[in-house]
Amino acid sequence: MKPHIRESINWSLGIAVITFVLAAIFTIVSTFALTGLTWAIGTIVVFIIVLIGIFFDMLGIAATAADEVPFHAMASKKVNGSKSAIQIIRNADRFASFCNDVIGDISGIISGTATAIVVLQLTVSYNQTDGSIFHYVVSVIFTSLVAALTVGGKALGKSIAIRSSTNIIFQVGRIFHFLEDKFNIVLIKDKKKKRNSKRK
User: Fold this and answer.
1) Average pLDDT of the segment spanning 163-187
2) How far is CA 125 from the centre of its chain?
3) What is the Cα 111 distance to its own chain's centre?
4) What is the pTM of this model?
5) Over 139-165, what HEC string results?
6) Which of 16, 19, 42, 95 could pair with 118 as two cysteines, CB 3.0-4.6 Å apart?
7) Please, which pLDDT band fits residue 145 given cuts at 50, 70 and 90?
């Protein structure tokens, strides 16, 4: 099997496992957080989940749209975050896959589950039963609203990401640099270093 095919398979399997774990954690946390809350506060939680999905979707788009050339000048001046930004762009496929597919899709699934919980809480607060006309109408309204906000928010996020991709990735690069410098946490490894180590 060719090295790049093996690498792609390993990455796919790894991201699938990460998605399973994160989805389980986020679902448990969100369900627990919504338990006992009023439907109004629950609605805010749902909107926060939607915003998280929109934000990470924007990061993924920015990584694929950004050009690494401006960061080389920054790296020569030893600007913090520039080297990390270059690594993000060089690994844009994986970075975007994690942001858009993993976090983005998980947020979409969880927001749907959370919306169902909020709708049920609202139904009970008005002394209505599950399956009643009131529950059906509220469910349609809430689901449609969340869907509209998600799609509209991601459309806006994509526009911002494409126009401001350099600045967005630079800010993410600064965060990555901070984590690596202060806590020795390397989120994206240098592909060139990996290739050189394999050759040796």
Assistant:
1) 93
2) 33
3) 13
4) 0.85
5) HHHHHHHHHHHHHHHHHHHHHHHHHCH
6) 42
7) very high
- Give the model's pLDDT for residue 198: 46
Q: How far apart are CA 103 and CA 26, in angstroms?
A: 10
Mean pLDDT of the chain: 88
Chain mean position to CA 177: 19
Does the pLDDT value for residue 193 go beyond 60?
A: no
Contact 190, 68 (CB under 8 A): no
Q: Which two tokens stand for residue 130?
A: 């599950």
74-77's contacts with Cβ under 8 Å and 24+ in sequence apart are: 74/170
In this prediction, residue 195 carries a pLDDT of 46
Neighbours of 50 (CB within 10 A): 23
Residue 50 to residue 86: CA distance in whole angstroms: 29
Q: Collect all residues with Cβ–Cβ distance below 8 Å to 49 and sequence separation of at least 6.
A: 30, 107, 110, 111, 114
Residue 185 in contact with residue 179, Cβ under 8 Å? Answer: yes
- CA 111, CA 47: separation in Å to the nearest integer? 8
Q: Write down how long the chain is.
A: 200
CB 104 within 8 A of CB 53: yes
Q: Which two tokens stand for residue 44?
A: 């805010």
Rg of the chain over CA atoms, in angstroms?
21
pLDDT band at 34; cut points 50, 70, 90: confident
